[in-house]
Design brief:
Order of helices and strands: HHEEEEEEHEEHHH
Distance between the termini: 38 Å
Number of domains: 1
CATH architecture: Sandwich
CATH superfamily: Jelly Rolls
CATH class: Mainly Beta
Strand content: 15-25%
Helix content: 40-55%
Structural class: alpha+beta
Shape: globular
């Protein structure tokens, strides 16, 4: 049993080769183990972007948020140094379920998805299935928590965005999308 099906690997390769206008700059430059720097306020990737790598936060803080059912942008997580970014999405849908934004200057170490696949495929089948199941359950739990307005306790200092903050974030997102289309 392969953790990633042959189809998944082929799809990931096709997704990378196309590097569509939806692919974030962080994901386009695929080099495992390479450091990528983002400045405070930079969008790392958007909800809905394809994801084919995962990241380890070497320095800084990353704020996670998603567009709620009402259309408002809702903070859903805060990641710090030595935490992983993009893991559950890489193991499940290959689509970013959240938006990641540098809360401070951030340095990420990219881990090429195919490298992760090689390691995971060396594990016993039951460990592969366990990893897949846990990733799916984590995504489902995050979705339920977001729908219910329950957030990471580390976000209490951030709370829901004010209208002014949300307007600023939307401008950053619009600029990010504009830049992706130009690249």
């Amino acid at each position: 049993m392969s953790f990633f099906s042959k189809n998944d690997s082929q799809e990931k390769s096709k997704a990378y080769e196309k590097t569509s206008e939806k692919t974030s700059p962080a994901i386009k430059q695929r080099t495992s183990g390479m450091s990528k720097k983002f400045y405070e306020g930079d969008i790392i990737f958007l909800q809905g972007d394809p994801i084919i790598d995962l990241f380890i936060i070497a320095k800084g803080e990353v704020q996670l948020y998603k567009k709620g059912g009402s259309g408002r942008i809702v903070p859903v997580g805060l990641l710090k140094q030595q935490e992983f970014l993009g893991v559950s999405d890489l193991f499940t849908t290959k689509i970013c379920s959240i938006t990641a934004r540098a809360l401070t200057d951030v340095e990420l170490i990219s881990v090429y998805g195919d490298d992760v696949e090689k390691i995971v495929n060396q594990l016993p089948d039951w460990v592969q299935k366990l990893t897949s199941t846990l990733s799916e359950r984590l995504n489902s739990s995050k979705e339920i928590l977001s729908e219910q307005g329950i957030s990471d306790e580390r976000l209490h200092s951030l709370k829901e965005f004010s209208n002014e903050e949300e307007v600023k974030i939307r401008k950053v997102i619009d600029e990010y999308i504009k830049n992706k289309k130009n690249n």
